[in-house]
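## tool: complex_structure
## caller: assistant
## args:
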Amino acid sequence: MIAYLECFVSESRPDDGVSSLSKALGLQGTVVDFGGEAGRDFGGMKSFPPLAFIRPAGADDVARVVKAAARSSNLTVAARGNGHSINGQAMADRGLVLDMRSLGEHFRVVRAGDGSVYADVSGGALWEDVLKRCVFEYRMTPRSWTDYLSLTVGGTLSNAGVSGQAFRYGPQTSNVTELEVVTGKGEIFNCSETENSELFFGALGGLGQFGIITRARLLLQPAPDMVRWIRLVYTEFDDFTRDAELLVTRQDDGGDSFDYVEGFAFVNSNNPADGRPSVPLDPQETFDPAHLPPTSGPILYCLELAHHYRNTDRSSTVDTGVNGLLGGLGFVEELKFQLDLSYVEFLLRVKRAEEHAKANGIWDAPHPWLNMFVSKSDIADFDRTVFKKILKDGIGGPMLVYPLRRSKWDTRTSVVLPESEIFYIVALLRFTPPYPKGPSAENLVAQNQEIIQYCTRKGFDFKLYLPHYRSQEDWKRHFGNDQWSRFVERKTCFDPMAILAPGQKIFSRVPQP
Ligand code: FAD
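## result:
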């Protein structure tokens, strides 16, 4: 069989290659084709056709493929979740790509003796499907989300998984108690905080470097029925950050807070994509700029909040609760927008934006996105230069900026964070509409580099989220000495031939003689 794989590597492809390769690997699943979507991703800027795109039926198939690659001279294996990476992270240049979504649902609710409830889900499950099953069948829900849910469980757990609940519950990596992982040696392990813990913590935020997550156990809690979704406008960054930080820390002093806290910067213009019209939640509402003080600058800020409640709650009780939470905040009183919707509709809110973007042809255009974590101590300087100068005309999409708390993250995972307790996620979610033609994706990537270089030059305490580097030196700097040593040790232990996730470009495949 290895000889068979090698013949693919040497570019001679038999006509019946797809089914023969499937048989040669002894798969329950199938080989789909020799390229197609596996050579593309959401970023739309990289293209590395694989040797084969394989649909494993389960962890055993994943293990067979990894073992076959290990016996070949230089094949690599990439798990592809939903391919929503930006820089080719889920690709394998002339390697084997696994379509993790084909693993099937494997959905099971588990109740522990102490009353805790968990869902066992496939590593290839889409979060939107996990949401629907948990809520519609069990009235339960995972605690921590991403903004957009057409992402896979294994894909986000390999990074972190961050949204407006993370200030309270930590990222998704802090809300999983057990994994099933296939290592780079093709071994299948269950792992948790107490069993094979190095593999467990290594795989969480591990950029796919130590193993392929085939199952995850997620902590659940009772699901609310409804959400009051609120947006508040600020003209001054200081006021915005003071209130955002107050809301993400208030529970420490025994106070109550919202169930979701996010924020974004937007342009003080009429641009529908990233200007004032992007703020109202209800299509009936409009943003009246007459309410802005005359001193308002080119960039404004919006705090985005959500309050959960039950169908049985009276609306006056919800109003009183929300007004209590809003008391003392310094937003522009007349620029408050709100909408009541079901919990599931709220969590699927970006799906509506996706449908709109697909209709406008901008979903499939390149996405030169930049995601970073910037320490609280540097965020005002970041705002002055990056938002107010470099990005003062907007980016054609959302510019997220909201605080997170380091103490809610488990530093035993592979994720790298700034040093300070409060740091901000900054996500520049650039869209490049075909009409009217704007700057090229290359120019926008160059602007991202300018922002990174500015932060580096100023000595900011920052890290890239969903990182992408070209050289190992850059990766070492990203991790810092101690975390890099731990990362390399874990690699040596779990994937010594560097077979897994080659698209991250951290390690090179160790050739087999
Ligand atoms: P892929 O892009 O397919 O894979 C990502 C990496 O993980 C690759 O290296 C791949 O090899 C590896 N991998 C995939 N599956 C597995 C597995 N089962 N086991 C081990 N390794 C695996 N992120 C947030 O944190 N918060 C957000 O709110 C958020 N919103 C987003 C909105 C959009 C529209 C998009 C496009 C991305 C968003 N992201 C967000 C980023 C997202 O979390 C990452 O891009 C994630 O990697 C994408 O998931 P995926 O399932 O498509 O993974």
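## assistant note: The longest helix spans residues 441-457. The pocket of flavin-adenine dinucleotide is lined by residues 42, 78-85, 89-90, 100, 123, 146-148, 151-152, 154-156, 158-163, 207-208, 212-213, 466, 501, 503-504 (CB under 6 Å). Handing back to user.
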